[in-house]
Amino acid sequence: MSASVKSQQTNKGEEDEPCGWKWQQKLRANPATRTIYRVLVAVLGFVIIVLGVVLLPLPGPGWVIIFLGLGVWASEFEWASNLLSWTKDTVWGWTAWVARQNIVVRGLIGLAVAALVVACMYGYLLWQGVPSWLPDFARNPLMKVPGL
Fold first, then answer.
1. In the chain, is it the N or the C terminus that has fewer CB atoms within a 10 Å radius of its CB?
2. 124 φ/ψ angles, rounded to the nearest 5 degrees
3. Cα 61 from Cα 70, distance rounded (Å)
4. Are 79 and 2 contacting, i.e. CB atoms less than 8 angstroms apart?
C-alpha cells in the first residue's frame, strides 16, 4: 500500500485508527454490511462515470463528472485511489508545462482544443442532425453547414 493511500486511511497519523466517518467505520466493521457498502459504492461510481462519458461530446462538465465518479470509487477501492492520484499528478504536470510555454505555444494549444471541440460538435451534428428544439437564429445557420 502506498504511503499516500495509507495516510489517507488513517486519522492524524495513527496507524490503527481508520479514517472516514463513523457510519463508514460501522459499515466496514461488519462483513455483511461491508460487502453491501462496497457493491453500492462500485455501482454508484460506475453510474456517475457512465453519465460523464455520455456527456463528453456535449459542452459541459463531462470530465469533471468522470473524475467525481472516480473519486467515489477511490473512497473505497485502493486501485481507484491510485488511478485518481496518477490522474491528478498528470493533470498538474500538464498544467505546469503549459504555463511554462510562451504565449504562441499556449495560443496554439488553445486553438487545437477549440478545433477538437468544433470537430466533435460537427461529428455529433452529422450523426444526430440539427436538433429541432433549437431556436431559429441558431438552427438556420447550422442548416447551411455542408453535410448537415
1. N
2. -65, -45
3. 14
4. no
3's grid cell: 504511503
What is the full per-residue pLDDT of the chain (148 aa) written as tens digits? 444 444 444 444 444 445 677 887 888 888 888 889 899 999 999 999 999 998 887 777 888 999 999 999 998 899 999 999 999 999 999 999 999 999 999 999 999 999 998 898 888 888 888 988 989 998 999 999 888 8
DSSP string, 92-130: HHHHHHHHHS-HHHHHHHHHHHHHHHHHHHHHHHHHH--
Rg, the chain, Cα only? 22
Q: Is the dihedral of CA 131, 132, 137, 143 positive or negative?
A: positive
CA-CA-CA-CA torsion sign (79, 85, 88, 93)? negative
Collapsing DSSP to helix, strand or coil, 18 comes out as strand
**Cβ-proximal residues to 101 (8 Å cutoff; 6+ apart), any chain:** 109
Which residues, other chains included, contact 81 with Cβ-Cβ below 8 Å and sequence gap of 6+?
Answer: 5, 8, 74
Question: Please, are residues 27 and 37 in contact by the beta-carbon 8 Å criterion?
Answer: yes
